[in-house]
Each structure stands twice: as C-alpha cells, then as structure tokens.
Design brief:
about 325 residues, alpha+beta, four-stranded antiparallel sheet, 4 strands
C-alpha cells in the first residue's frame, strides 16, 4: 500500500539510507541522512546523488518495484557518494563519477539478487561498494587519506564513533542519531549494534591500539557483523512473513506478490528461509548458499559440508564440490 504522506521515490531513497544498517525503515533512513547533514554537510550532496543514481538506474532498467522500494539499489550508491565526496577534491568530474558508480553498484546488486534463487543464499550486503571503493581508493595517493587524532571524548562515546564510521563520519553525534534510528526500526538491532561496536573498542585496546579504538576504527565492522545474523527480522522487513498478501503490516508497508517476497524483504531472506526450511535441515544447521554461476556452494554452519545444486537435486561432499 503506498504511503499517502511520502512519495514512493522519497520512501525508496530513505529506505536506501536505512539499508546501510540492514534495516528497511524510512525514519531510520531519515535520521541517518540527518547525521550526515549535521556532522558532514559537505558529504550530503554526494550521498543523495549516489542514492538517486542507483534508484534511477533500477527504475530505468525496470528492476522489480518491490526491490526498488526496499532500498536495495540505493544504499551502495549512498556509500559510494560519501566515499567519493570525502576523498576526491570537488571538480566538474566528481558528479558524473558519483552517478556512474551509483548506477554500476545497482547493476551489480541486481545481478547478485537474480542469482539468489533460494532464501538461504548469501546476500550482497555492501560487496559492490567495497569492490568499487577499493578501485577508487587505489587511484588516490596516501597523503589524501589523513586520519584524525582522537579528541577528548569519553570512552563511552567510542562505540557511537564506531556507528558513525559506518557512514564515514567520525563524530559521536552521528553515531547517536544512527543509534536512535536503529532503535526506532528495531530495538533488538540497536542493542546488537551497540554490543558489536563496544566489543570492537575492547578488541582495539587488547591490540594495544587505543588511538584507532577511540576513533571507532575497530568498531564499525563488528557493529555490522552483529547486525547481519539477526535471527528475528524487524517488523517492517518481515511484514511479508506475518501478513497475508494485500494486507499491510502498517500504513507504510505491504507484503509483495508471491515470488517477490524474498527479494523485497532483503536482507531478511535468511529469516524467511528458516521458517520454511525442512525439519531435517534444522537438525544440522541452516545452510548458507553462495551462487557462483557455474557452481553453487552450500555450507552448513555445524557440519561444514559443501553442496552443489543441479537438475538432479542436491548432493553433499565433505571434501569437494563439483558443478
């Protein structure tokens, strides 16, 4: 059901901001946008341009609307826009570069999603952003990537800095706004994100690197890792799992048509697949499938078996996987 108070394109763009933190919630996305505006206004234009580039590319190439509305084709563009705006001097070539990278990230995400034919497939997450970002940073000299010295913030603010570093911001206010957005989207997700960020700070101290720990450089990856395997999806992401088709879970969200539900509630795919998995699979752990095109690798969390899927069914080996 469309939201009468928010245009579809605006909701899709805000969902793209929230999908950086594996959520689908416009208010969470709005608070993430507000964090960029208040802490790094010079990066806001690049973030919006990258998100719009991904969204327009998906619309022009006629990608499924449910996936576009979920923000699947925007969040990598937002991150790339932030990265380019931060590390490249502003010139007439920067906007076209952001547009090109944002569009390319949407295409790569779509190719990954198309190969996710099972609910237990490994989602793309930020793989397009990481791949394109590494290529971009390879063209920048090390002197263009300075690291700020830690200020006098209390140790308790270090986890908030880690949340802010996910969107390339090094101020605790950014992390606080993001934490509030996660709390609105899912209190469970907010708790796990803070626990992950706090564990990163502790590990940084154990590694005898207090400067990087106080800057949040040891926290942003643990925070995202803590968010990724959430066993219970957020209400907005799991609307399709608990409500019949056509009946919205709330005024903003509605279950998509059958066949498109898995991709529309991404990244809650693992949760949806778990509910429908056979009981036999549950005894050996939930398998994770990685589509490679020429072969599909399937790993179980407890038995560590590799499986390839073909026309004749699935076969498991402990030592190798064939086509």
């Amino acid at each position: 059901m469309p939201n009468p108070t928010c245009p579809d394109w605006a909701e899709a763009l805000l969902n793209g901001f929230s999908q950086i933190f594996l959520q689908r919630h416009p208010l969470c996305g709005l608070l993430c946008l507000l964090a960029i505006l208040t802490c790094a206004p010079a990066l806001l234009g690049g973030a919006l341009l990258g998100g719009v580039a991904g969204l327009l590319t998906a619309q022009r190439r006629d990608y499924p609307k449910a996936e576009r509305q979920a923000g699947l084709y925007s969040y990598n563009g937002v991150l790339l826009g932030l990265l380019i705006s931060q590390h490249f001097a502003w010139s007439a070539l920067v906007p076209p570069l952001i547009l090109a990278c944002g569009g390319l990230s949407a295409i790569l995400t779509r190719q990954w999603v198309k190969r996710m034919v099972h609910g237990d497939d490994l989602p793309a997450y930020t793989a397009p952003f990481v791949a394109i970002g590494w290529l971009l940073l390879g063209t920048v000299s090390p002197t263009a990537l300075p690291v700020s010295a830690p200020d006098t913030l209390a140790w308790l603010s270090a986890p908030l800095l880690g949340l802010g570093q996910i969107v390339l911001l090094d101020q605790p206010l950014a992390g606080l706004l993001i934490a509030v957005g996660l709390l609105l989207a899912s209190p469970r997700a907010a708790l796990w994100a803070m626990l992950g960020a706090s564990s990163g700070v502790a590990l940084g101290l154990l590694l005898d690197d207090p400067t990087a720990a106080l800057l949040g450089l040891h926290s942003y990856n643990p925070a995202l890792a803590a968010l990724a395997p959430q066993p219970v999806p957020t209400p907005t992401l799991a609307a399709g799992a608990r409500h019949p088709p056509g009946k919205p879970a709330c005024p903003r969200f509605c279950r998509p048509a059958p066949g498109a539900a898995d991709s529309a509630v991404y990244p809650g795919l693992l949760a949806g697949a778990r509910d429908a998995a056979p009981a036999a699979q549950g005894q050996h752990g939930q398998p994770v499938r990685i589509p490679l095109g020429f072969a599909d690798l399937r790993f179980r969390r407890t038995s560590w078996t590799a499986t390839t899927t073909g026309a004749s069914g699935s076969t498991s080996w402990y030592s190798r996987a064939t086509r």
